Structures are given as structure tokens and as C-alpha cells.
Amino acid sequence: MRGCIVYERSTAARRKEYIALYRQHFDKHGIPFELVFTDNYREELTKTPVDFAIVRAIVPEISKELEEMRIAVYNNARVSEICNDKWLTFQYISEHTDIPFMTCMTAEEFLTKGNDFIYPLVVKNRRGHGGTEVFSVSSCEEAADLIGRYPKGSLIVQEMASDTGRDVRVFVVGNRVVTAMLRVSEHDFRSNYCLGGKAVPYELSSYERQMVRKITDCFSFGMVGIDFIFHRGRAVFNEIEDVVGARMLYDHTKVDIVAEYADYIIERQKRQNTGETLWDR
Question: Residue 25 belongs to a domain with what CATH number?
Fold first, then answer.
């Protein structure tokens, strides 16, 4: 068994310690594991084939190509394609579950049908990550101005949840809940840890666990973060992070999410090597 982790060069330079955690764990199991970059992965994987790849770059096309090369990809290409597009995610979740979420539409639909929205609203880049390109707008004119500065089809507009600056990220490995963290910001409607939000462990309610289960039943996850915001005191679905960060876990808990993920991959690869059929959704 041999594996790799795929990063963009610029990102890998900032994630050396995180990459080292993967190497240490796979080395402990005697599994060769290398870093591969998005700009030369074809050459490297042709020269040194691997059985599995952990893709930590938001490039669904790479995940698809790796699967065509008969490489097991974590997360798989379907998860990467849907979950890195907030609009596709909302559509998929609404079609396959009854989970509540704040009213959402494309920016183009909003410009023609959005008169019933109550301000402030949230405007997002549908392919944004880490809380970037998420804006609060206070009027129709402000929204239209912002939308006009982006290419057509790149933004979505979402009703603002009542309990701003507060959300929960649920860390899932192999469709199993590992832990959850409450993120809180006292100065921003966004509560992302990387934007300065505070994080503490959080105990999911039975209702919240049911929502997570309905989502995991729709996908074959490797490792993701499922985010819920709060509206009138109740959790509602917000998004799924494919390339989910883990710094808050290592800063505030004893959970070793990399070890959990690596063990899951090793076990899944062993099962696959014995001929067991593993269905990806």
C-alpha cells in the first residue's frame, strides 16, 4: 500500500506541520506516503504509482482524474464537486433531505425575485472557502452593487440567521461523527476560527445528530466538516467543508483527527484490497 497527499505548492508551504502528522502516522504503519503538488501530480504519480490520494486542494477536476487513474481518492470526486460549491450543496441537501436551512438563491434570481427578503442579507461566493468572500449587505442597492462586481453565476444570496457570530462545525470521518466545535465571534457575523473566532468543544443534541446522519447518508465522506448556524436558537444547515481545517481541534482538544482519518483510510484500503465492494456516493 502506498499513498500521497495532494496540495497546491503555496498552501503546502504553510501546512508543513499538518502534512508531517500524516507522514508520521502512515510511517508508523509502514506505508510509504509522499507529498505531491497540483502542478506536477501526473508526472509524479506516473513515475511512482499510489493506491490512495488525500486531496487537500480545492480542484474537483484533479479528484476526477485521479479516480480515472484507479486511485482511491479522499474525499472522492463527487464530494469534492458538490461540497466545494455552496449552491450545489444547498440544492442537493434540499432535494435529498428535509433538513432546514436559511432561504437561499442565486444572485441572478435575487435580482429579479428578492424583494421579499428582510435585511441584512448574506452574499457569498458559491466557491468560497474559510469565510472569505462572505459579505453582509444592508440594502437592495448595496446587494446589487456587490453582485455587479462579480462574474455572473458566482454568487449566492442567503437569508441572515438570527443568531449571528455563532456556529457549530461537526467533524466527520468516514460518515462517523468524531467531535464538534462551537465557534463564536464577538465582533463579526462570521464565526470562522481562521478569522479570529473563539472555539470550544460542543455536545450535539439528538436533533443535531439526526441532521448530521441524514447528510452522511447522502455521501461517502472521507473527512469533512459539516457546519450549522443558529436561527431563533435552533441549528440549521449551512455548508459542508471538503478540505476542512483542523487547527482548532489541536489548539483546544486532545482529538487527533489526522490519526482518525489515517486509520479510516488504512482500514478502507485493506477492505478494498480483499475484494470487498465499497460504494462511493
Answer: 3.40.50
Examine residue 152 and state whether it is found in any structural domain, yes or no.
Answer: yes
Same domain? For 154 and 171 the reply is no
Residues in contact with 100: Cβ distance below 8 Å, sequence separation at least 6, in sequence order = 234, 236, 237
Q: Name the CA dihedral angle for 45, 46, 50, 54, rounded to a multiple of 10 degrees.
A: 30
Burial of 6 (0-12, 13-18, 19+ CB in 10 A): buried
pLDDT in tens, the chain (281 residues): 999 999 999 999 999 999 999 999 999 999 999 999 999 999 999 999 999 999 999 999 999 999 999 999 999 999 999 999 999 999 999 999 999 999 999 999 999 886 778 899 999 999 988 777 899 999 989 999 999 999 999 999 999 999 988 999 999 999 999 999 999 877 655 455 455 568 899 999 999 999 999 999 999 999 999 999 999 999 999 999 999 999 999 999 999 999 999 999 999 999 887 765 555 66
In whole angstroms, what is the distance from residue 14 CA to residue 162 CA?
A: 35
Q: Is the preceding omega at residue 120 within 30 degrees of 0, hence cis?
A: yes
Q: What are phi and psi of 154, to 5 degrees?
A: -100, -10
Instruction: State which residues form the domain around 136.
Output: 104-159
Count Cβ atoms below 10 Å from residue 43 Cβ, excluding itself. Answer: 11
* Separation between Cα atoms, residue 92 and residue 97, nearest integer Å: 8
- Helix, strand, or coil (residue 16): helix
pTM check: above 0.90: yes
Compute φ and ψ for 25, nearest 5 degrees.
Answer: -70, -45
Helices (H), 38-195: 41-47, 60-68, 77-83, 86-96, 107-113, 140-148
Residues 179 and 246 in one domain: yes
> For residue 221, what is its C-alpha cell?
465522506
